[in-house]
Design goal:
It is a single chain. With 241 residues, this protein is mainly α. α1 packs parallel to α12. The longest helix is centred in the C-terminal third of the chain and has 29 residues, at 152-180. 74% of the residues lie in helices and 0% in strands.
Length: 241
């Protein structure tokens, strides 16, 4: 439900310049997101609301970078808090064991890990990855069948190694920076909010591999492409004049 609400909020924010009435469904969706009590969703709302307030007052370069700094602080604070919540169980907990093993896999199989469908994903669980047998997860790791695909960090480092984990983080930050440069401030807010949600989600779950996550990725791509087309249109009009 929270993913669906975030997708709608991002879409409606892009249309605020043309239709101010979008603010009413946005408020309703924000309330629903708050009641979901998902930290990643709440972080998204905090970031988006802060940006709407700051951008309303000013839209110069310094304001954008101040906003980016605030986003970083919020993302780190909530991300770390969420990380502690999900990894606060005993050292023998599934998430803790799999995360430690994923780091060891990333180091021992530098730089690419074990590859697709090998560790921490639904595919690895369904097809019975040989890695799990080697690590004796089926017999010695209590709760593995329930929480064996519930940690994105374990998944990305186990399957794609240090190269994959670092690349994913770099890509997200590059998307954040690119979004800051978008001329339309409402589209900029929507893109930065989505990129921040992607970043924070990696600390607790494998949502990025969930089919329900696809609408967010599609909306992100459509907003970015729409801005690219508008920019090219303005360049063309200047050349014609």
């Amino acid at each position: 439900m929270s993913i669906f609400c975030i997708a709608l909020i991002s879409t409606l924010i892009c249309g605020l310049n043309k239709n101010k009435k979008n603010i009413f469904p946005i408020i309703m969706l924000i309330i629903i997101c708050l009641f979901s009590l998902r930290m990643a969703s709440i972080a998204y709302l905090i970031i988006v609301l802060l940006m709407l307030i700051l951008y309303k007052k000013n839209n110069n370069v310094s304001t954008k970078w101040i906003t980016f700094f605030i986003i970083g602080v919020v993302a780190i604070y909530i991300g770390v808090d969420q990380f502690k919540y999900y990894y606060s169980s005993s050292n023998d907990g599934v998430r803790n064991v799999m995360t430690k093993d994923a780091i060891n896999i990333a180091l021992s199989n530098f730089p690419f890990g074990y590859g697709f469908g090998s560790f921490g994903t639904f595919a690895a669980m369904d097809y019975g990855s040989s890695v799990y047998s080697e690590l004796h997860y089926y017999t010695k790791l209590y709760g593995f069948e329930r929480f064996g695909c519930d940690s994105f960090i374990a998944c990305i480092f186990g399957q794609f190694g240090l190269f994959g984990g670092i690349s994913y983080i770099i890509i997200l930050f590059s998307l954040e920076i690119k979004a800051l440069k978008i001329i339309d401030k409402k589209k900029s807010i929507a893109l930065i909010g989505l990129a921040s949600y992607f970043l924070i989600s990696m600390f607790a779950s494998t949502d990025i591999f969930n089919p329900n996550f696809l609408p967010l990725i599609m909306i992100f791509a459509l907003i970015e492409n729409d801005d690219y087309l508008e920019l090219n249109k303005k360049i063309y009009e200047k050349q014609v004049i």
